[in-house]
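TA notes, week 10

Several of you asked for a full example with nothing omitted. So below is the full record: structure tokens for the whole chain, then the designed sequence directly under it. When grading your own attempts, check the secondary structure regions first.
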């Protein structure tokens, strides 16, 4: 059995989860289910990032202590993942004690090996991003953060710095030698361009408790008392603390990760800070950092300030969870930005799910009931081929290619019905074998389709499986075999996706 370690980013708990969080996590779940279907031993990690200045401020605004505030937000993420049928294996919180222990162990190791050092910083600081800026941009005569373009402030204080700059040449070389380290290619080129155009500054990895109390305290000794860990240094380490770090003999230890799935706004921490941190700790980088785009609403990124947050619960209540999962993967090429609208949801729902998939199942089962008493007929010749580009699409994060292959197959099934006209074949005794081949072949196709659709639409797949009268549970071992559905008693139910008017 191959192992497959997949992660989402840790989601910041300063607000409730929205469409962007759901998108990342649904993609991760589909990948996890696909690899389980292949027979891989999957470990799927997700969780929440609960430290830092923004959490401290949000908690104060809510009149709560930071941990109490985090405790009030985390159940919302877990409830949404349950609603979306997210099959994660472990949910980590950066307030978990084992994570705290692992972060402190990493800090001690790096400090003792001379890779962390103290220095007084005098310069610009962006509070919203919780990062130091070498130099501000000027907009309307005022200094702003070059990344988020919000106001920044000047500070002077002693802190601890990680020797990020020492590893610039190593990191650029690693990215150039490994085409799949950052995907898609546009993001890989973005990071390489950044590394070639700018000198990497050492990373400030502490905050004095006089300015920020809510974080993991840096171990004293070897550090001076009165410092907490920078939220990004803390959060990135979750990918190994969840496996038992620093105990690399832990039974859960399966490093390196196969895929870190992230949004493009957190590319730099994952593609620059994190691989360098791992190198300094003596560990391999992840195999792939897969970067998706943003969902836009009326051309703008979702944000609380704009009031355009899309609540996944509302969409699921309106369309159903599997239709929502399907839409997220089918609508936008991975890596690109996408625009969310109910008009687009309606179009996908009616055209792809109701007219194509739902109609194929309903027509096939209705004719099996009518012409063969509800029992799938035996046949000797199949008119149905296999879908193309399926595994290639999944393995290259080209989910549209994978789904398009399945839908081309579904179209083939609907076209077969229209061209062979089973209702005409049923009237001629000489055409009985052809009728069996059409309907028996379609039943086998739908049976296989139920298996191949399972990573994307698990409930729909199980519904198709049940309506076909298939025994047991969906598994890869039950993939295509001509005549495998023969003799099954179908149990036609309601249409999978009733048309929306």
């Amino acid at each position: 059995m191959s192992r497959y370690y997949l992660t989402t980013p840790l989601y910041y708990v300063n607000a409730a989860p929205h469409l962007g969080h759901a998108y990342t996590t649904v993609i991760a779940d589909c990948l996890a289910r696909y690899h389980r279907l292949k027979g891989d031993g999957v470990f799927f990690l997700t969780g929440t990032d609960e430290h830092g200045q923004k959490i401290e401020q949000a908690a104060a605004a809510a009149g709560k202590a930071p941990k109490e505030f985090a405790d009030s937000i985390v159940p919302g993420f877990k409830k949404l993942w349950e609603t979306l049928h997210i099959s994660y294996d472990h949910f980590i919180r950066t307030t978990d004690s084992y994570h705290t222990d692992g972060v402190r162990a990493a800090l001690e190791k790096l400090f003792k090996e001379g890779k962390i050092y103290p220095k007084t910083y005098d310069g610009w600081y962006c509070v919203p991003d919780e990062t130091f800026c070498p130099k501000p941009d000027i907009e309307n005569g005022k200094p702003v953060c070059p990344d988020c373009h919000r106001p920044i402030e000047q500070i002077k204080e002693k802190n601890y710095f990680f020797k990020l700059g020492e590893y610039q040449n190593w990191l650029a070389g690693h990215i150039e030698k490994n085409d799949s380290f950052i995907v898609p290619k546009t993001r890989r080129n973005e990071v390489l361009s950044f590394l070639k155009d700018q000198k990497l500054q050492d990373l400030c990895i502490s905050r004095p408790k006089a300015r920020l109390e809510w974080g993991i305290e840096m171990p004293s000794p070897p550090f001076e008392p009165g410092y907490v860990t920078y939220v990004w240094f803390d959060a990135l380490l979750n990918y190994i603390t969840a496996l038992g770090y620093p105990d690399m003999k832990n039974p859960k230890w399966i490093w390196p990760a196969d895929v870190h799935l992230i949004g493009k706004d957190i590319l730099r921490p994952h593609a620059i800070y994190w691989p360098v941190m791992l190198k300094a700790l003596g560990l391999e980088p992840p195999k792939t950092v897969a970067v998706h785009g943003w969902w836009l609403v009326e051309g703008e990124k979702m944000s609380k300030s704009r009031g355009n947050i899309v609540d996944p619960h509302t969409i699921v209540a309106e369309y159903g969870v599997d239709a929502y999962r399907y839409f997220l993967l089918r609508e936008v090429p991975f890596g690109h930005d996408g625009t969310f609208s109910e008009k687009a949801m309606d179009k996908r729902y009616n055209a792809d799910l109701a007219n194509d998939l739902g109609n194929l199942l309903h027509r096939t089962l209705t004719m099996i009931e009518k012409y063969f008493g509800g029992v799938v007929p035996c046949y000797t010749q199949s008119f149905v081929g296999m879908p193309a580009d399926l595994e290639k699409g999944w393995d290259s994060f080209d989910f549209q290619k994978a789904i398009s292959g399945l839908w081309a197959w579904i179209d083939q099934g609907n076209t077969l019905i229209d061209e062979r006209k089973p209702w005409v074949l049923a009237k001629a005794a000489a055409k009985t074998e052809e009728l069996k081949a059409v309907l028996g072949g379609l039943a086998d196709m739908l049976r296989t389709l139920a298996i191949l659709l399972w990573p994307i639409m698990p409930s729909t797949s199980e519904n198709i499986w049940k309506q076909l009268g298939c025994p047991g549970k969906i598994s890869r071992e039950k993939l295509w075999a001509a005549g495998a559905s023969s003799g099954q008693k179908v149990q036609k139910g309601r249409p999978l996706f009733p048309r929306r008017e």
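The two ends are 47 Å apart (CA to CA). Use that as a sanity check on your answer.
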